[in-house]
Amino acid sequence: MYLLQLFNGLSISSILLLVALGLAITFGLMKVINMAHGELIMIGAYSTYLTQNIFKAYLPASMFDWYFVLAIPASFAIAFVVGLILEMSLIRFLYGRPLDSLLATWGVGLVLQQLARSIFGAPNVAVTSPSWLDGGLMIMDGTLLPYKRLFIIALVIACLVAMYFYIYRSHEGRRMRAVMQNRDMAACLGVSTRRVDAMTFAIGSGIAGIAGCALTLMGSIGPSLGTYYIVDAFMVVVLGGVGKLVGTVLGAMGIGMFNTLFEYWTNASLGKVLVFVCIVAFLQWKPMGFVAMRSRSLD
Amino acid sequence: MLAVQQLEAGYGESIILRNVTLTVKPGQVVCLLGRNGVGKTTLMKSIMGLLKARGGSVAYNGTDLTKRAPGQRAKSGIGYVPQGREIFGQLSVYENLLLGLEASKTKATSIPEEAIAKFPVLPEMYTRRGGDLSGGQQQQLAFARALASKPEVLLLDEPCEGIQPSIVDDIRDVIRSIKSDGKTAVLLVEQSLEFVKSIGDYFYILEKGAIAWEGGLDALNDEVVRKYLTV
Protein backbone atom coordinates (compact mmCIF):
# COMPACT_ATOMS: atom_id res chain seq x y z
CA MET A 1 0.00 0.00 0.00
CA TYR A 2 2.81 2.37 0.88
CA LEU A 3 4.41 1.58 -2.43
CA LEU A 4 1.32 2.81 -4.25
CA GLN A 5 1.23 5.97 -2.15
CA LEU A 6 4.88 6.52 -2.94
CA PHE A 7 4.13 6.17 -6.63
CA ASN A 8 1.19 8.54 -6.36
CA GLY A 9 3.40 11.06 -4.63
CA LEU A 10 6.00 10.70 -7.34
CA SER A 11 3.34 11.11 -9.99
CA ILE A 12 1.94 14.29 -8.44
CA SER A 13 5.49 15.59 -8.00
CA SER A 14 6.21 14.98 -11.66
CA ILE A 15 3.12 16.91 -12.75
CA LEU A 16 3.96 19.77 -10.39
CA LEU A 17 7.51 19.80 -11.65
CA LEU A 18 6.49 19.85 -15.29
CA VAL A 19 4.11 22.73 -14.61
CA ALA A 20 6.77 24.62 -12.64
CA LEU A 21 9.79 24.03 -14.91
CA GLY A 22 8.86 26.75 -17.36
CA LEU A 23 8.22 29.12 -14.49
CA ALA A 24 11.59 28.23 -13.00
CA ILE A 25 13.06 29.88 -16.07
CA THR A 26 10.78 32.89 -16.52
CA PHE A 27 10.38 33.62 -12.81
CA GLY A 28 13.41 31.86 -11.34
CA LEU A 29 16.04 33.07 -13.77
CA MET A 30 14.49 36.17 -15.31
CA LYS A 31 12.59 37.37 -12.21
CA VAL A 32 9.48 38.08 -14.27
CA ILE A 33 6.32 37.41 -12.25
CA ASN A 34 4.52 35.79 -15.14
CA MET A 35 0.88 35.30 -14.20
CA ALA A 36 0.14 34.24 -17.78
CA HIS A 37 2.21 31.08 -17.23
CA GLY A 38 -0.98 29.11 -16.61
CA GLU A 39 -2.40 30.30 -19.92
CA LEU A 40 0.74 29.18 -21.73
CA ILE A 41 0.05 25.73 -20.25
CA MET A 42 -3.50 26.05 -21.53
CA ILE A 43 -2.16 26.95 -24.99
CA GLY A 44 -0.03 23.81 -24.94
CA ALA A 45 -3.07 21.74 -24.03
CA TYR A 46 -5.16 23.19 -26.85
CA SER A 47 -2.28 22.65 -29.26
CA THR A 48 -2.46 18.97 -28.39
CA TYR A 49 -6.22 19.08 -28.93
CA LEU A 50 -5.67 20.64 -32.35
CA THR A 51 -3.03 18.09 -33.31
CA GLN A 52 -5.44 15.34 -32.36
CA ASN A 53 -8.22 16.86 -34.49
CA ILE A 54 -5.93 17.25 -37.48
CA PHE A 55 -4.90 13.60 -37.20
CA LYS A 56 -8.55 12.57 -36.89
CA ALA A 57 -9.58 14.57 -39.93
CA TYR A 58 -6.76 13.99 -42.38
CA LEU A 59 -4.95 10.80 -41.54
CA PRO A 60 -6.06 7.16 -41.53
CA ALA A 61 -7.29 5.88 -38.17
CA SER A 62 -4.31 3.54 -37.85
CA MET A 63 -2.04 6.57 -37.58
CA PHE A 64 -4.12 8.21 -34.86
CA ASP A 65 -2.20 6.72 -31.94
CA TRP A 66 0.94 8.51 -33.00
CA TYR A 67 -0.53 11.99 -32.87
CA PHE A 68 0.79 12.38 -29.33
CA VAL A 69 4.39 12.02 -30.46
CA LEU A 70 3.88 15.02 -32.73
CA ALA A 71 1.76 16.88 -30.17
CA ILE A 72 4.67 17.32 -27.76
CA PRO A 73 6.91 19.30 -30.13
CA ALA A 74 3.85 21.07 -31.56
CA SER A 75 2.74 22.35 -28.16
CA PHE A 76 6.30 23.38 -27.38
CA ALA A 77 6.55 25.28 -30.66
CA ILE A 78 3.21 27.07 -30.39
CA ALA A 79 3.75 28.11 -26.75
CA PHE A 80 7.32 29.12 -27.69
CA VAL A 81 6.04 31.45 -30.42
CA VAL A 82 3.33 32.92 -28.16
CA GLY A 83 5.96 33.48 -25.46
CA LEU A 84 8.28 35.13 -27.96
CA ILE A 85 5.54 37.50 -29.12
CA LEU A 86 4.61 38.23 -25.50
CA GLU A 87 8.22 39.02 -24.61
CA MET A 88 8.84 41.24 -27.58
CA SER A 89 5.58 43.16 -27.34
CA LEU A 90 5.15 43.50 -23.58
CA ILE A 91 7.52 41.85 -21.13
CA ARG A 92 10.65 43.59 -22.36
CA PHE A 93 9.25 46.93 -21.26
CA LEU A 94 8.62 45.59 -17.78
CA TYR A 95 11.98 44.15 -16.69
CA GLY A 96 12.81 45.25 -13.16
CA ARG A 97 9.21 46.28 -12.48
CA PRO A 98 7.70 43.27 -10.67
CA LEU A 99 4.37 44.83 -9.71
CA ASP A 100 3.69 46.16 -13.19
CA SER A 101 4.61 42.86 -14.80
CA LEU A 102 2.38 40.98 -12.35
CA LEU A 103 -0.65 43.08 -13.32
CA ALA A 104 0.17 43.15 -17.03
CA THR A 105 0.75 39.41 -17.36
CA TRP A 106 -2.40 38.70 -15.35
CA GLY A 107 -4.26 40.81 -17.88
CA VAL A 108 -2.63 38.91 -20.71
CA GLY A 109 -3.74 35.69 -19.02
CA LEU A 110 -7.36 36.88 -18.97
CA VAL A 111 -7.16 37.89 -22.64
CA LEU A 112 -5.74 34.49 -23.60
CA GLN A 113 -8.45 32.69 -21.62
CA GLN A 114 -11.16 34.66 -23.37
CA LEU A 115 -9.48 34.03 -26.70
CA ALA A 116 -9.56 30.29 -26.03
CA ARG A 117 -13.22 30.59 -25.04
CA SER A 118 -14.00 32.40 -28.30
CA ILE A 119 -12.15 29.91 -30.47
CA PHE A 120 -12.87 26.59 -28.79
CA GLY A 121 -15.98 27.42 -26.75
CA ALA A 122 -16.43 27.61 -23.01
CA PRO A 123 -17.08 23.92 -22.26
CA ASN A 124 -14.17 21.60 -21.68
CA VAL A 125 -12.98 19.54 -24.60
CA ALA A 126 -11.72 15.98 -24.39
CA VAL A 127 -8.43 14.78 -25.75
CA THR A 128 -8.34 11.07 -26.46
CA SER A 129 -5.16 9.59 -25.12
CA PRO A 130 -3.33 7.30 -27.49
CA SER A 131 -4.17 3.66 -26.89
CA TRP A 132 -0.55 2.71 -26.18
CA LEU A 133 -0.84 4.70 -22.96
CA ASP A 134 -3.93 2.80 -21.75
CA GLY A 135 -3.55 0.23 -19.06
CA GLY A 136 -0.68 -0.02 -16.68
CA LEU A 137 2.21 -1.91 -15.31
CA MET A 138 1.20 -4.58 -12.79
CA ILE A 139 4.01 -4.87 -10.28
CA MET A 140 2.10 -6.95 -7.74
CA ASP A 141 -1.43 -7.92 -6.86
CA GLY A 142 -3.56 -4.80 -6.56
CA THR A 143 -0.75 -2.43 -7.42
CA LEU A 144 -1.12 -1.09 -10.92
CA LEU A 145 1.04 1.74 -12.19
CA PRO A 146 -0.82 3.49 -15.04
CA TYR A 147 1.28 3.97 -18.17
CA LYS A 148 0.05 7.55 -18.49
CA ARG A 149 1.56 8.51 -15.17
CA LEU A 150 4.75 6.64 -15.92
CA PHE A 151 4.88 8.46 -19.24
CA ILE A 152 4.57 11.85 -17.53
CA ILE A 153 7.40 10.93 -15.15
CA ALA A 154 9.56 9.98 -18.13
CA LEU A 155 8.59 13.19 -19.94
CA VAL A 156 9.61 15.29 -16.92
CA ILE A 157 12.95 13.53 -16.74
CA ALA A 158 13.48 14.11 -20.45
CA CYS A 159 12.62 17.81 -20.08
CA LEU A 160 14.97 18.14 -17.10
CA VAL A 161 17.85 16.52 -18.95
CA ALA A 162 17.24 18.68 -22.02
CA MET A 163 17.09 21.83 -19.89
CA TYR A 164 20.21 20.85 -18.01
CA PHE A 165 22.15 20.44 -21.22
CA TYR A 166 20.75 23.64 -22.66
CA ILE A 167 21.43 25.79 -19.60
CA TYR A 168 24.70 24.32 -18.34
CA ARG A 169 26.35 22.82 -21.40
CA SER A 170 25.46 24.89 -24.47
CA HIS A 171 26.71 28.22 -25.78
CA GLU A 172 23.24 29.72 -25.60
CA GLY A 173 22.85 28.57 -22.02
CA ARG A 174 26.18 30.09 -21.05
CA ARG A 175 25.10 33.42 -22.50
CA MET A 176 21.81 33.09 -20.70
CA ARG A 177 23.43 32.51 -17.31
CA ALA A 178 25.88 35.34 -17.88
CA VAL A 179 23.10 37.79 -18.73
CA MET A 180 20.99 36.74 -15.75
CA GLN A 181 23.94 37.18 -13.38
CA ASN A 182 25.46 40.39 -14.66
CA ARG A 183 23.60 41.98 -17.50
CA ASP A 184 25.92 44.96 -17.99
CA MET A 185 29.10 42.93 -18.05
CA ALA A 186 27.62 40.37 -20.43
CA ALA A 187 26.65 43.23 -22.74
CA CYS A 188 30.18 44.66 -22.55
CA LEU A 189 31.58 41.30 -23.67
CA GLY A 190 29.45 41.33 -26.78
CA VAL A 191 26.49 39.19 -25.71
CA SER A 192 23.24 40.37 -27.26
CA THR A 193 21.13 40.71 -24.13
CA ARG A 194 17.91 41.42 -26.03
CA ARG A 195 18.24 38.17 -27.96
CA VAL A 196 19.02 36.20 -24.82
CA ASP A 197 16.03 37.68 -22.96
CA ALA A 198 13.65 36.87 -25.79
CA MET A 199 14.99 33.31 -26.21
CA THR A 200 14.95 32.60 -22.49
CA PHE A 201 11.38 33.73 -22.04
CA ALA A 202 10.26 31.84 -25.13
CA ILE A 203 11.89 28.61 -23.92
CA GLY A 204 10.22 28.95 -20.51
CA SER A 205 6.93 29.40 -22.33
CA GLY A 206 7.59 26.42 -24.59
CA ILE A 207 8.16 24.18 -21.59
CA ALA A 208 4.84 25.40 -20.17
CA GLY A 209 3.37 24.23 -23.47
CA ILE A 210 4.81 20.73 -22.97
CA ALA A 211 3.25 20.72 -19.50
CA GLY A 212 -0.09 21.54 -21.08
CA CYS A 213 0.35 18.68 -23.51
CA ALA A 214 0.98 16.27 -20.65
CA LEU A 215 -2.05 17.53 -18.73
CA THR A 216 -4.34 16.38 -21.53
CA LEU A 217 -3.52 12.83 -20.40
CA MET A 218 -4.99 13.57 -16.97
CA GLY A 219 -8.45 14.68 -18.08
CA SER A 220 -10.45 17.07 -20.21
CA ILE A 221 -9.17 20.57 -20.80
CA GLY A 222 -10.78 24.00 -20.74
CA PRO A 223 -9.92 27.68 -21.08
CA SER A 224 -9.30 28.05 -17.34
CA LEU A 225 -7.00 25.00 -17.13
CA GLY A 226 -4.01 27.17 -16.30
CA THR A 227 -5.56 28.87 -13.30
CA TYR A 228 -5.63 25.56 -11.41
CA TYR A 229 -1.90 25.19 -11.72
CA ILE A 230 -0.47 28.71 -11.51
CA VAL A 231 -0.45 28.87 -7.69
CA ASP A 232 1.14 25.44 -7.38
CA ALA A 233 3.76 26.39 -9.94
CA PHE A 234 4.77 29.54 -8.08
CA MET A 235 4.81 27.61 -4.80
CA VAL A 236 7.18 25.01 -6.22
CA VAL A 237 9.60 27.62 -7.57
CA VAL A 238 9.59 29.73 -4.39
CA LEU A 239 9.91 26.72 -2.10
CA GLY A 240 12.74 25.31 -4.19
CA GLY A 241 14.74 28.49 -4.19
CA VAL A 242 14.79 30.93 -7.04
CA GLY A 243 17.35 30.45 -9.78
CA LYS A 244 18.39 26.81 -9.49
CA LEU A 245 16.98 23.78 -11.31
CA VAL A 246 17.83 21.43 -8.44
CA GLY A 247 15.75 23.58 -6.11
CA THR A 248 12.71 23.35 -8.36
CA VAL A 249 13.03 19.55 -8.45
CA LEU A 250 13.27 19.40 -4.66
CA GLY A 251 10.35 21.81 -4.28
CA ALA A 252 8.11 19.72 -6.52
CA MET A 253 9.13 16.46 -4.81
CA GLY A 254 8.52 18.00 -1.39
CA ILE A 255 5.07 19.34 -2.15
CA GLY A 256 4.00 16.27 -4.15
CA MET A 257 5.14 13.73 -1.58
CA PHE A 258 3.78 15.55 1.48
CA ASN A 259 0.53 16.23 -0.30
CA THR A 260 0.00 12.54 -1.01
CA LEU A 261 1.06 11.39 2.44
CA PHE A 262 -1.04 13.93 4.32
CA GLU A 263 -4.05 13.13 2.17
CA TYR A 264 -3.51 9.44 2.84
CA TRP A 265 -3.26 9.96 6.59
CA THR A 266 -6.10 12.48 6.89
CA ASN A 267 -8.37 13.53 4.04
CA ALA A 268 -8.08 15.59 0.86
CA SER A 269 -8.87 19.04 2.23
CA LEU A 270 -7.07 18.67 5.55
CA GLY A 271 -4.05 17.27 3.71
CA LYS A 272 -3.88 20.38 1.51
CA VAL A 273 -4.08 22.60 4.59
CA LEU A 274 -1.25 20.71 6.27
CA VAL A 275 0.91 21.09 3.16
CA PHE A 276 0.33 24.83 3.17
CA VAL A 277 1.16 25.03 6.89
CA CYS A 278 4.40 23.15 6.22
CA ILE A 279 5.33 25.47 3.35
CA VAL A 280 4.69 28.59 5.41
CA ALA A 281 6.68 27.20 8.32
CA PHE A 282 9.52 26.15 6.05
CA LEU A 283 9.76 29.55 4.39
CA GLN A 284 9.90 31.16 7.85
CA TRP A 285 12.88 28.99 8.60
CA LYS A 286 14.54 29.28 5.18
CA PRO A 287 13.15 32.31 3.36
CA MET A 288 15.33 31.66 0.32
CA GLY A 289 13.94 28.17 -0.26
CA PHE A 290 15.73 24.80 -0.41
CA VAL A 291 18.67 25.80 -2.56
CA ALA A 292 19.82 29.34 -2.05
CA MET A 293 22.67 30.67 -4.13
CA ARG A 294 25.45 31.53 -1.79
CA SER A 295 28.85 32.60 -2.93
CA ARG A 296 31.53 35.18 -2.43
CA SER A 297 30.35 36.70 -5.67
CA LEU A 298 27.00 37.68 -4.21
CA ASP A 299 28.37 39.36 -1.09
CA MET B 1 42.06 55.03 -33.18
CA LEU B 2 39.57 55.67 -30.41
CA ALA B 3 38.29 59.25 -30.50
CA VAL B 4 36.08 60.83 -27.88
CA GLN B 5 34.72 64.23 -28.90
CA GLN B 6 33.12 66.75 -26.55
CA LEU B 7 31.44 63.97 -24.62
CA GLU B 8 28.75 64.79 -22.08
CA ALA B 9 27.31 62.10 -19.84
CA GLY B 10 25.81 61.58 -16.41
CA TYR B 11 23.41 59.63 -14.23
CA GLY B 12 19.75 60.66 -14.27
CA GLU B 13 19.46 64.39 -13.87
CA SER B 14 23.05 65.06 -12.92
CA ILE B 15 25.69 65.63 -15.54
CA ILE B 16 29.10 64.26 -14.63
CA LEU B 17 31.20 64.67 -17.76
CA ARG B 18 31.40 67.94 -19.65
CA ASN B 19 33.07 68.45 -22.95
CA VAL B 20 35.57 65.61 -22.68
CA THR B 21 37.79 65.12 -25.70
CA LEU B 22 40.50 62.49 -25.84
CA THR B 23 42.11 60.16 -28.32
CA VAL B 24 43.88 56.82 -28.00
CA LYS B 25 46.18 56.08 -30.92
CA PRO B 26 47.00 52.50 -31.97
CA GLY B 27 49.61 50.86 -29.76
CA GLN B 28 49.61 53.69 -27.26
CA VAL B 29 49.15 53.41 -23.50
CA VAL B 30 47.06 56.40 -22.51
CA CYS B 31 46.51 57.07 -18.81
CA LEU B 32 43.54 58.81 -17.29
CA LEU B 33 44.29 60.39 -13.93
CA GLY B 34 42.39 62.45 -11.44
CA ARG B 35 41.25 62.60 -7.85
CA ASN B 36 38.34 60.54 -6.58
CA GLY B 37 34.93 61.42 -8.00
CA VAL B 38 36.06 63.45 -10.99
CA GLY B 39 34.40 61.10 -13.46
CA LYS B 40 37.08 58.62 -14.56
CA THR B 41 34.88 55.53 -14.27
CA THR B 42 31.93 57.44 -15.72
CA LEU B 43 34.07 58.22 -18.76
CA MET B 44 35.05 54.56 -19.13
CA LYS B 45 31.39 53.50 -18.90
CA SER B 46 30.38 56.07 -21.48
CA ILE B 47 33.07 54.90 -23.87
CA MET B 48 31.88 51.33 -23.43
CA GLY B 49 28.25 52.35 -23.86
CA LEU B 50 26.94 51.44 -20.42
CA LEU B 51 25.99 55.09 -20.01
CA LYS B 52 24.27 56.92 -22.82
CA ALA B 53 26.02 60.05 -23.99
CA ARG B 54 24.05 63.28 -23.61
CA GLY B 55 26.15 64.99 -26.21
CA GLY B 56 29.33 64.61 -28.19
CA SER B 57 30.52 61.41 -29.78
CA VAL B 58 32.57 58.26 -29.33
CA ALA B 59 34.14 56.99 -32.53
CA TYR B 60 36.41 54.09 -33.29
CA ASN B 61 38.45 54.00 -36.51
CA GLY B 62 36.13 56.59 -38.00
CA THR B 63 32.92 54.68 -37.16
CA ASP B 64 30.57 56.59 -34.91
CA LEU B 65 29.67 54.39 -31.93
CA THR B 66 27.70 56.95 -29.92
CA LYS B 67 24.34 55.28 -30.53
CA ARG B 68 25.61 51.70 -30.48
CA ALA B 69 24.95 49.19 -27.68
CA PRO B 70 27.89 47.94 -25.54
CA GLY B 71 27.90 44.61 -27.34
CA GLN B 72 28.41 46.22 -30.74
CA ARG B 73 31.22 48.35 -29.34
CA ALA B 74 32.85 45.21 -27.99
CA LYS B 75 32.53 43.59 -31.41
CA SER B 76 34.14 46.55 -33.10
CA GLY B 77 37.28 45.85 -31.06
CA ILE B 78 37.00 47.49 -27.64
CA GLY B 79 37.79 45.31 -24.63
CA TYR B 80 36.82 46.27 -21.10
CA VAL B 81 38.18 45.35 -17.66
CA PRO B 82 35.80 47.15 -15.34
CA GLN B 83 36.38 48.46 -11.88
CA GLY B 84 35.54 45.72 -9.41
CA ARG B 85 36.34 43.09 -12.08
CA GLU B 86 32.71 41.95 -12.59
CA ILE B 87 33.49 38.26 -12.90
CA PHE B 88 30.46 35.98 -13.38
CA GLY B 89 30.58 34.41 -9.94
CA GLN B 90 28.34 31.41 -10.62
CA LEU B 91 30.11 30.47 -13.84
CA SER B 92 33.33 28.51 -13.96
CA VAL B 93 36.61 30.21 -14.76
CA TYR B 94 36.62 28.50 -18.14
CA GLU B 95 33.09 29.66 -18.92
CA ASN B 96 34.07 33.20 -17.97
CA LEU B 97 36.88 33.01 -20.50
CA LEU B 98 34.63 31.54 -23.18
CA LEU B 99 32.30 34.50 -22.74
CA GLY B 100 35.26 36.66 -23.60
CA LEU B 101 35.15 35.11 -27.08
CA GLU B 102 31.67 36.49 -27.79
CA ALA B 103 33.10 39.69 -29.23
CA SER B 104 35.90 38.11 -31.25
CA LYS B 105 35.85 38.77 -34.96
CA THR B 106 36.97 35.30 -35.92
CA LYS B 107 34.63 32.45 -35.06
CA ALA B 108 37.10 31.13 -32.52
CA THR B 109 35.84 28.40 -30.23
CA SER B 110 38.88 28.03 -28.05
CA ILE B 111 40.63 30.61 -25.96
CA PRO B 112 43.62 32.10 -27.78
CA GLU B 113 46.99 31.09 -26.38
CA GLU B 114 48.23 34.64 -25.95
CA ALA B 115 45.27 35.58 -23.74
CA ILE B 116 46.11 33.04 -21.06
CA ALA B 117 49.85 32.71 -21.57
CA LYS B 118 50.35 35.74 -19.36
CA PHE B 119 48.33 34.21 -16.54
CA PRO B 120 49.66 30.72 -15.92
CA VAL B 121 47.55 30.27 -12.77
CA LEU B 122 44.27 30.39 -14.68
CA PRO B 123 44.33 27.01 -16.49
CA GLU B 124 44.79 25.28 -13.14
CA MET B 125 41.51 26.79 -11.95
CA TYR B 126 39.32 26.22 -15.03
CA THR B 127 36.67 24.20 -13.21
CA ARG B 128 36.38 26.45 -10.16
CA ARG B 129 33.61 28.99 -9.95
CA GLY B 130 34.64 32.56 -10.71
CA GLY B 131 33.10 33.77 -7.47
CA ASP B 132 35.34 31.51 -5.40
CA LEU B 133 38.55 33.07 -6.67
CA SER B 134 40.49 35.65 -4.70
CA GLY B 135 40.47 39.29 -5.76
CA GLY B 136 43.83 39.07 -7.47
CA GLN B 137 42.92 35.89 -9.31
CA GLN B 138 39.64 37.47 -10.40
CA GLN B 139 41.54 40.44 -11.75
CA GLN B 140 43.77 38.16 -13.80
CA LEU B 141 40.66 36.37 -15.05
CA ALA B 142 39.06 39.68 -16.01
CA PHE B 143 42.21 40.56 -17.97
CA ALA B 144 42.33 37.23 -19.76
CA ARG B 145 38.61 37.43 -20.51
CA ALA B 146 39.03 40.85 -22.10
CA LEU B 147 42.08 39.69 -24.08
CA ALA B 148 40.32 36.58 -25.40
CA SER B 149 38.54 38.57 -28.10
CA LYS B 150 41.86 40.11 -29.22
CA PRO B 151 40.68 43.69 -28.75
CA GLU B 152 42.40 46.60 -30.46
CA VAL B 153 41.71 48.96 -27.58
CA LEU B 154 41.63 47.81 -23.99
CA LEU B 155 39.87 49.90 -21.34
CA LEU B 156 41.35 49.21 -17.91
CA ASP B 157 39.54 50.71 -14.94
CA GLU B 158 41.79 50.61 -11.86
CA PRO B 159 43.24 47.16 -12.51
CA CYS B 160 45.41 47.28 -9.39
CA GLU B 161 42.76 48.32 -6.90
CA GLY B 162 42.91 46.20 -3.76
CA ILE B 163 45.49 43.75 -5.06
CA GLN B 164 48.65 42.42 -3.45
CA PRO B 165 51.96 43.99 -4.64
CA SER B 166 53.27 40.89 -6.43
CA ILE B 167 50.18 40.69 -8.63
CA VAL B 168 50.36 44.43 -9.24
CA ASP B 169 53.83 43.74 -10.66
CA ASP B 170 52.42 40.92 -12.79
CA ILE B 171 49.73 43.22 -14.14
CA ARG B 172 52.33 45.86 -14.93
CA ASP B 173 54.27 43.24 -16.88
CA VAL B 174 51.12 42.25 -18.74
CA ILE B 175 50.37 45.84 -19.75
CA ARG B 176 54.01 46.23 -20.81
CA SER B 177 53.88 43.13 -22.96
CA ILE B 178 50.60 44.29 -24.52
CA LYS B 179 52.35 47.55 -25.31
CA SER B 180 55.43 45.87 -26.78
CA ASP B 181 53.25 43.60 -28.96
CA GLY B 182 51.94 46.85 -30.41
CA LYS B 183 48.60 45.32 -31.47
CA THR B 184 46.49 46.69 -28.66
CA ALA B 185 46.14 50.24 -27.41
CA VAL B 186 45.33 50.79 -23.74
CA LEU B 187 43.29 53.41 -21.94
CA LEU B 188 44.21 53.05 -18.28
CA VAL B 189 42.59 54.57 -15.22
CA GLU B 190 44.91 54.29 -12.25
CA GLN B 191 45.54 56.05 -8.95
CA SER B 192 49.18 55.11 -8.51
CA LEU B 193 51.33 57.78 -10.14
CA GLU B 194 54.41 55.62 -9.94
CA PHE B 195 52.57 52.85 -11.78
CA VAL B 196 51.32 55.00 -14.66
CA LYS B 197 54.63 56.83 -15.05
CA SER B 198 56.33 53.49 -15.56
CA ILE B 199 54.16 52.50 -18.54
CA GLY B 200 52.20 55.48 -19.87
CA ASP B 201 52.82 57.25 -23.18
CA TYR B 202 50.32 60.03 -22.86
CA PHE B 203 48.33 61.40 -19.93
CA TYR B 204 44.99 63.08 -19.38
CA ILE B 205 43.94 64.54 -16.06
CA LEU B 206 40.25 64.91 -15.29
CA GLU B 207 38.93 67.51 -12.90
CA LYS B 208 35.22 68.10 -12.18
CA GLY B 209 34.27 66.05 -15.20
CA ALA B 210 36.41 67.89 -17.72
CA ILE B 211 39.92 67.38 -19.07
CA ALA B 212 42.04 69.78 -17.04
CA TRP B 213 45.47 68.84 -18.35
CA GLU B 214 47.02 66.62 -20.99
CA GLY B 215 50.55 65.90 -22.07
CA GLY B 216 53.39 63.43 -22.39
CA LEU B 217 55.57 61.85 -19.73
CA ASP B 218 58.08 64.72 -19.71
CA ALA B 219 55.42 67.31 -19.09
CA LEU B 220 53.94 65.44 -16.15
CA ASN B 221 56.10 67.24 -13.58
CA ASP B 222 55.71 67.83 -9.87
CA GLU B 223 53.86 71.07 -10.35
CA VAL B 224 51.14 69.39 -12.44
CA VAL B 225 50.90 66.59 -9.92
CA ARG B 226 50.59 69.08 -7.03
CA LYS B 227 47.93 71.09 -8.82
CA TYR B 228 45.66 68.28 -10.03
CA LEU B 229 46.41 65.11 -8.16
CA THR B 230 47.64 65.76 -4.64
CA VAL B 231 44.85 65.50 -2.13
From TrEMBL, chain B:
Protein name per its UniProtKB record: Urea transport system ATP-binding protein
Keywords for this entry?
A: Amino-acid transport, ATP-binding, Nucleotide-binding, Transport
Question: Pfam family of this protein, just one?
Answer: ABC_tran
Q: Where is the signal peptide?
A: none
Family membership, please give it. Answer: Belongs to the ABC transporter superfamily.
Q: Which InterPro entries match?
A: AAA+_ATPase, ABC_transporter-like_ATP-bd, ABC_transptr_urea_ATP-bd_UrtE, BCAA_Transport_ATP-bd_LivF, P-loop_NTPase
| Gene Ontology MF: a single term | ATP binding
The record, for PROSITE patterns, names: ABC_TRANSPORTER_2
- ABC transporter domain location is 2-231
Organism expressing this protein natively: Paenibacillus harenae
CDD domains xrefs:
ABC_TM1139_LivF_branched
